[in-house]
Amino acid sequence: MAGNIFLFSSLLSQERLSWIEQSLHQYNISSATMQDRQISVKIDVTFFLTGDSIYSLIDSETVHNWISILSLPNIELVCDNDALIKRGFSVSHLTDRYSDRITVLPNTFDNGTTPFWSKLFNITTQNREKNAQGIGWVQISSPHMYPGIIEGSKYLSTAVNFGYNISIYGFLDGIHITHQGQENPASQNDRITLATLKKRAAEKNLTFSILIHQYCAGARGYVTWNDGQGNIGSSYTIQSAHIKSLEEIINHLRCNQVLLSENAGWFNSSLEDISLHPPFITILITHSPYTTEYTYSGISLATAFAHQGIRTRIVFLEDGVLALSGKQRTLEKSEQYTFPDLLNHLPNDKNIELFSLIPSFYARGTNQDASLTYIRQIQYSDLGNLLYHSNNGRGQESQRIFIF
User: Fold this and answer.
1) Residue 161: CB atoms within 10 Å
2) Which CATH number fits the domain that encloses residue 28?
3) Domain identity same for 162 and 204
């Protein structure tokens, strides 16, 4: 099954699974209406679960969401069996009922790949030319607090097996994967993981690149300087890493490269010449605005894509709607900003659209600031139209979905 693909490796909250469930149901209702009008609509969605997202399959607060999702047509769920075994759980209560919808695959390395990541790779590259624009991974979370890069490296290693160039892009604490001299006795070191990827790519005459965001790098002490003869990289980073401006990174991403992250989505385009149509970007803002960098970085990334002429959408949901709530202000003469101030610069960009999910406001007992009229408030049905795409549709670009 191809079409819409979602990969989750972090804990899935009941709220997140609820908007996934409700938006899918609403999309299927609208699709049924179109079919009544003899308009052919078919949506395929495949979910890949690894890491702590596995807990959502046994948690009493979330398992009913999965049962509801699996009751819909053309839904497939692929589970990481190694993650299940490590956590001591089985999903037989679901596989017994939905044996045709759920696949449980090993995630243990064998000849540079695993069955779990091989299936994901095969689906994300379906209908694409061999090595068309390569395969990329966006690392956002801290490497030792979260297993993202270890899992991501399995996906990239699989790509190398199939002869694809590979790239890694570091943002926020994800840039720490490039720190020189890491030694972690409790698990595999990231520098060894990356060195192995680089070696395997070189053996097959494939390219391997690591680009980390200059702003995020500087905030964490990774700096570059010019000695008069050119830029010199930080001595704290491994040799493969290159510190680049956001604009330089976006230029690298203008191609139709398959791009995933720890929690992300991808839609395979039906266009014959996808190289002429860069994927449009959907960024989901899910964190509260001021205590972490997630909201600011998600908006900055979206803005950079839009400035490069790439169609971009920002959707505020879950705690992300708090960036749009209340009468936010700073103290006089403060150099700080509020998020409404930041967002007020965006409506003039024709390549960017902004949305907010009404049920997320209801859940928090708040409303969107009335002055933010350019941010369209949407329901689950609208969210479904943003996130999912029919395989029968023609002329649709690929879509990248990132969760901040």
Assistant:
1) 16
2) 3.40.1260
3) yes
Comparing C-alpha atoms, which of 251, 354, 374, 266 is closest to residue 307? 251
pLDDT in tens, 90-123: 999 999 999 999 999 998 877 778 899 999 999 9
Beta strand spans in 155-279 (E): 166-170, 208-213, 225-226, 231-232, 241-244, 258-261, 264-267
Domain boundary among 254, 289, 308: 254
Question: What does the pLDDT read at residue 276?
Answer: 57
Of 335, 334, 345, 263, nearest to 300 (Cα)? 345
Burial environment of residue 274 by CB neighbours within 10 A (0 to 12, 13 to 18, 19 or more): buried
Q: Is residue 259 part of a domain?
A: no
Shared domain for 311 and 386, answered yes or no, is yes
Tokens matching residue 177: 């994967």
Q: For residue 378, give its domain range.
A: 269-404
Q: Write out pLDDT tens, residues 207-239.
A: 999 998 888 887 787 777 654 554 556 667 777
Angle of the 294-307 helix axis to the 246-253 helix axis, nearest 10: 60
Q: State the CATH number of the domain containing residue 228.
A: 3.40.1260.10
Listed in sequence order, the DSSP H helices in 244-389 are 246-253, 294-307, 339-343, 358-363, 380-387
Q: Is residue 111 a part of any domain in this protein?
A: yes
- 67 CB-contact burial (10 Å; exposed 0-12 / middle 13-18 / buried 19+): middle
pLDDT attached to residue 298: 93
Domain end residue (candidates: 88, 123, 158): 123
Tokens standing for 324?
A: 């749009």
CA distance linking residue 132 with residue 105, whole number of Å: 27
